[in-house]
């Protein structure tokens, strides 16, 4: 069962970056319990589920799984430590636990503990050693190393050989911790007695139970060769740049042999001590130059230790070590890894709101692996460090969707190598609208004209208001504001379509009753809470020629006997009478003109076009009839023009006596009631006075009504 080892809590900018180290054996079965994350974080299973906890692995493959309901961290896929980490210790599987509401990041590592699942293996099942019979006791001979991919106590620990009369084995340890074997000669060999010695060698690891591997050693006893090769140095230390080309020279080793002939000829070879060395290096057997078989990578292996053997023609050999240090070059660009990202953000988000969490990793070391982050350009975002290589992208100022609806935020990571390498990751952040803009009318006051008598439903025009917001926050609805108490109910004259803003008449209007009115229109958006704006709608009623002129004098029901009196000695231009008329319309529809339509003597009288005054056009003649009948037509200037007629009776007399005689005859005419002249004169004067007074009262009432409407 895995045991939680360390729980480190860091608080940065309101978010926590946790590093927890757990342990689990490699090859653990699927579903094996590792740890309880909820317990370590101080949360219950319900809280963990409510905050939508999830794992973000560092590797592409997900080896672990989190149960949101219980908080248990379990194995999802079996993990082979040797496959994941090779010889690297410790072998860590890193991941992050992300929580929502609020957004928090907890870092964790699971250490894979090695199990003894590999036995030591000799690459060659038979090892042949050629040893001259002149070799002295205590001489040492290097053996090929066995390979064990396990680490720690489970790796190769010691070598054993089977019982024989000539050798024992000694296990030694290299600087990198690996163990190798040397054969030690116990007593001198004699080729004539025994030309070959065979025995087995066993490599044993430290596991429980231990595992082992066996190979056969054949020692071929050579005839005498007095001198062995001697290297100029027992240890060669060299440096090579990573990414050096295949075949690049590494170092030249050199050995000499005092023997002559074939016994003095030296051949160089690399002694098998690891499969990786054989795959990486090669040696020229004649010159001793070591070169690369393939490129080396500092991030994979930093140091190589090579055993080189020099063998003369007589079979004697010597050994030296070559230690190759790989120097790092800046060949890895930083990597930006997004662990959490919110692609949509409300424009009302306050500063320091977390948009994304990300890590920056560089596989290089030293300055080449030291990184920094930046945001190129000017944008309302900033980067907040959370841990050594963890960062948060946060807002740095207030946002406004109406100004910038979306941002392409580029996160650039740069290392400190020479030349510096960089990598970028672009995040598209879209802003969600909030209702922060009220509708705006195109005009503060709208003036529309409506002809009187237009039927209900007539369109006067359209109001227009816009809203800078989006979606339902930008939807505008129109409505008329109710009038204040005591004000005219102008809202009963027109209506406004709630969607389009079209203004329509609710009923026909009479210019003579309503000439203009104003209403307040409110535009309201669809936000929550809604915002609104107002505009004034002024409707002007346009007059139509729907009223004919009305004759006030002479009255239409006046008696024909009540005529106008004109002396025969009257000069041209003598004022006979004045036709008085009014028109209830306005403007040119109320402009009146007068014409003489019919007369007993057409040339005797004329009518003023605009004044309506009836005057004599010449001196009355003796042949002119004493009684003249005139018909005056009163017209307005509307289209079509409307008119009315007035009939005047004019009496021509030479003297007062004749005048009285004419009036008397007029009174005694058939069909006329009898009466005295005085009575008719009184009636005529009273009628004219009443009509004139009524006309004055009408004008006064119209003036008063217009004044009150303007107020």
Task: Report what the structure shows.
- The protein is mostly beta strands and 711 residues long.
- Helix content is 10%, strand content 42%.
- A five-stranded mixed sheet has the order 1-2-8-7-4, with no helix packed on it. The protein has a four-stranded mixed sheet with strand order 9-15-14-11, with no helix packed on it. The chain has a four-stranded mixed sheet with strand order 17-24-23-20, with no helix packed on it.
- β7 and β8 form a beta hairpin.
- It is rod-shaped, with a radius of gyration of 60 Å.
- The N terminus is likely disordered.
Radius of gyration: 60 Å
Q: End-to-end distance, in Å?
A: 94 Å
Give the fraction of residues assigned to helices. Answer: under 10%
Largest sheet: 5 strands, mixed
List the uncertain runs: 1-17, 667-675
Q: What would the average pLDDT be, to the nearest integer?
A: 85
What is the overall silhouette? rod-shaped
If strands are numbered along the chain, what order do they take across the biggest sheet?
1-2-8-7-4
Q: What fraction of residues sit in β-strands? A: 35-45%
The tally of beta strands, per DSSP, is 50
Oligomer: single chain
Alpha plus pi helix count: 6
Secondary-structure class? mainly beta
GO biological process, one term: homophilic cell adhesion via plasma membrane adhesion molecules
Membrane topology: Single-pass membrane protein
GO molecular function: calcium ion binding
Transmembrane segments: 680-702
